[in-house]
Amino acid sequence: MKEKRRGLDNRSSATILLGVLLCFVMVTVYVFSRNLDTTYAIPATLDAKDISKFTSEVETISLPANKYFEGSVLLNSKFKGKFEKDDVTYTVDLFCLEHEKGMPNSREYVKVGDSSQYIDEGITYIVNTAYKDKDFDGSHNLTLGNDEYYTIQAAIWIYQEIQKSNPENTDIANMWKALQTSHASGVAKNIYDLVVNAQSVKNSTGVNSIEVSNGNLEFALSDDKTYYETSPITVSITTKNSNTEFSGFKFELNSNVFDTTVVDESGSVIQDLNSLAGKTFKIRVNASNLNAGSESNIVGKISGIFTNNSFLAYQSSSSPESAQIALLVTSNKTTEMKELKGKITVPDTARDYSKYVYIIGAMVLVIGLSVIYVNAKAKQQ
Length: 381
Known about the structure:
- The chain contains six helices and 14 strands.
- The two termini are 33 Å apart.
- α3 packs across α5 (186-203).
- Strands 1, 2, 3, 4, 5, 6, 7, 8, 9, 10, 11, 12, 13 and 14 form a 14-stranded mixed beta sheet that branches.
- With 381 residues, it is an alpha+beta fold.
């Protein structure tokens, strides 16, 4: 009888070992991610990283000095860039960095080797504001209104000038002084706010982050014993600054082989995992996919995808010293990750059964011996 019990225990141990091996060998990674469309100037298919050069254009506009407020500078031209991508020609209203340099017409512009020497987070903020929610028209042109264009271009020039320890351009310096004195409304307020906000963004020490309220997953068996479920989990997202957008989640678990789902607090399945930010959810594992007596390690991670909308600098190939530096938008994606760890321990029903069989066997043995004893006594009498 002891040999029989050992055999049952061995089979139970084999079941446990098989369950553990399944957890580590038959690992399937479940990934769900969706990149949101950028809201800035050039769509994702027209990233500046793919544009090595463009041809400059200059459009004459009528924006005389003092049109908006006392001290405003003259702007009589709008700078444009024309380039091709996939046999389509695009034209974009561009912005310049240096007030004192000219806007050359019909000039080839090429990408500079290091854009960081010209562009910081403040400049990026101002230009992003101009392009936000803008798109190409049916003729593949991205055009800004003259007043809107002036507001952004003036803010760039002022921001550039006040970054210097010794401002050199008297007109721009005086324009900033005038704005500091009077910026209650209209274009004056818009320019002033852009410059102040750009300074704040440049000096920001924020970072992209993803926080999970409960990374150590604790699974409990449901009342109807059909699934194991974690306690509530909440994910919060923080972006570095206004130049960065949260673009979605990447959700990875080694437990897809166990039929894993993500549900909200009411138990409804969440299909779009990008909607998890700021919400409470739970991870659920179907109990029928877990081996009796096994210990399943549920491991994985939640990653937040962040898109920084910045710019690359271009300069005239023939006259880089005298011509304006121009900007085209580019997107850079980064990922921040938090680990998820948990363990599901399933009761060993096979071992319980072997104990039950052993107890029954012992009872049968005792009863059998009792019958033999009684019969022996009866014969003796």
